[in-house]
Amino acid sequence: GGDLIIMLDLAREWFSENQSPYRLQFYPPLTYVFFAPLLLVDHYPTLYKFFTLFMVISYCFLTLVLPLKMTDKKNIPLIVLFFVTGLTSYGLQFELERGQYNVFTFLLCLWAIYIFHFHPKYRIFAYLLFSLSVQLKLYPAIFIVMLIDDWKDWKSILRRFAGLAVFNILLLFIMG
Fold first, then answer.
1. Integer distance in angstroms from the first to the last C-alpha of the chain?
2. Please, is 110 exposed, middle or buried when counting C-beta atoms within 10 Å of its C-beta (0-12, 13-18, 19+)?
3. Which among 21, 50, 107, 137 is least buried, having the fewest CB atoms inside 10 angstroms?
4. What is the pLDDT of residues 117-169, one digit of tens each?
5. Nearest of 14, 176, 34 to residue 105 by alpha carbon
6. What's the CA gap between 90 and 176, in Å, rounded?
């Protein structure tokens, strides 16, 4: 859980000792705010177990629940195959071992895409989830093209992308 320890130490130094977390590494400020409630747990092994359980649950939602909701039922064997092979993959094992949160970040991104396309009435929540995923890790920003519903309506697409860009830039100033 080295990455989790580093993140918590940087958040603790920022919130309790007023030291900048940016001397060692850079994450957007919302990441530190997001991890701040974990500082309430003083016993690291308990926190690591909780974090690992949370990542496994996130993995199950990411690879089973959302794909089943997004595809036809004839794809169930393929979805189960991806779930099982991913569950035994080195990538997931390293993610859990090091205390990383890429699985959760990508879950937020995929959930945003799901809401955007399957529940258009609640797109504001899709934008919020997408922005949160981008603020936790920057790589989900490449999935912004998945938030296009009509490729011919360029004016709407550019307005949506500009709005998301401005919102995410403003989130960089969440801590002042």
1. 29
2. buried
3. 50
4. 999 999 999 999 999 999 999 899 999 999 999 999 999 999 999 999 999 99
5. 34
6. 39
Question: Whole-angstrom Cα distance, residue 136 to residue 5?
Answer: 16
Lookup: tokens for 83: 């779930």
For 9-60, what is each residue's pLDDT tens digit? 888 888 888 887 777 667 788 888 888 888 888 888 899 999 999 999 999 9
**HEC-encoded secondary structure of the chain:** CHHHHHHHHHHHHHHHHCCCHHHCCCCCHHHHHHHHHHHHCCCHHHHHHHHHHHHHHHHHHHHHHHHHHHCCHHHHHHHHHHHHHHHCCHHHHHHHHHCCCHHHHHHHHHHHHHHHHHCHHHHHHHHHHHHHHHHHCCHHHHHHHHHCCCCCCHHHHHHHHHHHHHHHHHHCCCCC
Torsion, Cα 34 36 8 28, to 10 degrees, reads 40
Q: Exposure of 151 by Cβ count < 10 A (0-12 exposed, 13-18 middle, 19+ buried)?
A: exposed
